[in-house]
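Incident review: delayed structure delivery

Summary: a single-chain prediction request sat in the queue longer than the usual turnaround. Root cause was a stuck worker, restarted by the on-call engineer. No data loss occurred. The affected request and its eventual output are reproduced below so the record is complete for anyone auditing the incident later.

Affected input:
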Amino acid sequence: MPRLLLTNAVLATMQPAGGAYGLVPDGAVAIADGRIAWCGRRADRPASFSGIESIDLGGRLVTPGLIDCHTHLVFGGNRAREFELRLQGASYEQIAREGGGINATVAATRAASEDELLAAALPRVDALLAEGVATLEIKSGYGLTIEDELKILRVARRIGEVRAVRVLSSYLAAHAVPPEFKGRPEDYLDAVVLPGMATAHARGLIDAVDGFCEGIAFSPAQIGRVFAKARALGLPVKLHAEQLSNLGGAALVARHRGLSADHLEYLDDQGVAAMAGAGTVAVLLPGAFYTLRETQVPPVDSLRANAVHMAVATDSNPGTSPLTSLLLAMNMAATLFRLTPEEALAGTTRNAARALGLSDAGTIAAGSRADLAVWDVAHPAELSYRLGFNPLHRRIFAGAFQ
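Output delivered after worker restart:
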């Protein structure tokens, strides 16, 4: 028997068969044991639901709890100085090759304790939760030793223990070659990435494996080795692909039936077709596009034409996307990449769930987790329309108001 009934709400169920936004006017949601027991028009609720606790939401919009499916929230230090250098003309690649970029964050992260990393991450997490986020993906990738990667992953797990948020962690040791292995990426894979993956998996610290396939990071052949190890361990894969150039990373992750290919500014038609065939989600990251002042736009029209699911995420990280607003990421995806507001909301709900391999989140449907966001808006398009404004009324996590 449901324990709570939410009534007098406009439901944006985000169920694809439900028309635009899956809208249900004058809707209701019944919640039991942290899950949705029933949802639909209030007039259609089962008679057996009468007499249970009911909360009138005053006609407000209810969406699934938002999902940020690509973040790097656990790190030490910041890279504000690099922001200045880029404004003075330095490129991302130039900064990286001169010892900045990812390796600058690696040094600060290695020097920080687990407790310090947690304390630094929580304000970023709280900013996302305040905008209705219920699920977060958090990557490692700023330790680049076995123990420092494990340290980041432990912090990611702790975030899910000290905050009302679902956290999935991705192993991203194949993020950059650290200074001690400069010029020896294969040795780094053998000494750190592959054995560290096995250790992290054995300790229950990872839900997926990621990599960075780019000229300043790892080649497709090297990422192929990482993916082969992940698949042998039974772990799903995803990839930072085609951000700065086209190395065929999207096609590579699709061959491994990967969950997602992320960034994709330089994605070509072959990569789109491969993703469509594999069901690999395209995760668009407008925060990095904006911060790096990119001009090459992801091929959204081609992704649409090939029915590739598109997700949207913050890519929250210290260097290329110091963004902790998923609502702003939605606006950027609409403004910079020309997604419709409905595509932007689908990108932070049902398609973001797909990008994480989740089947119990991202829509308002019977059996799904009761992770919901209640908004002071008249129409869901407002969530992508506004800038610097948070219309969240209440967040519901696992059936409990936060």
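Verification: The longest helix spans residues 185-202.
Action items: add queue-age alerting; document worker restart procedure.
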